[in-house]
Amino acid sequence: LKAEKDNAEVRITDPDQYQSIVDAEWNIIYDKLNLIANTGANVVLSRLAIGDLATQYFADRSIFSAGRVEGEDLERTRRATGAQVQTTVQG
Predict the structure, then answer these.
(1) Complete DSSP assignment for the chain
(2) DSSP-assigned states of every residue in 14-32
(3) d(Cα 47, Cα 87) in Å, to the nearest integer?
(4) Three-state DSSP state, 86
(5) Which of 20, 60, 61, 90 has the least CB density, counted as fewest CB within 10 Å?
(6) Burial of 5 by CB count in 10 Å (0-12 exposed, 13-18 middle, 19+ buried)?
């Protein structure tokens, strides 16, 4: 979730707009976390770092998560468990 590839610059004229942008960003993060949790997964492994927010979110739902997992380890785990590797949360 932390590895968004595109950066954006937003210019606002009204301070209230700032809060709406922040709220929208949080909604995007929580939507992605919900999509992952709703798959029914008990374990989430990622090649990228998993931030504190996501780690706590998963822990609160009894989902084990680990980040910075080597690709070889992901593949070995996939083969051993019959799991699927997902590369996106977007269908």
Answers:
(1) ----S-------SSHHHHHHHHHHHHHHHHHHHHHHHTTT-SEEE-SS---HHHHHHHHHTT-EEE-S--HHHHHHHHHHHT----S-S--
(2) SHHHHHHHHHHHHHHHHHH
(3) 10
(4) coil
(5) 90
(6) exposed
How is residue 52 annotated by DSSP?
A: H
The string over 36-69, giving b where at least 16 C-beta atoms fall within 10 Å of a residue's C-beta and e elsewhere, is: bbeeebeebbbeeebeeebbebbeeeebebebeb
The pLDDT tens digits of the residues spanning 39-87 come to 999 999 999 999 999 999 999 999 999 999 999 999 999 999 999 888 8
Give yes or no for a contact between 54 and 33, defined as CB atoms under 8 angstroms apart: yes
Which residue is associated with the tokens 């995007």?
28
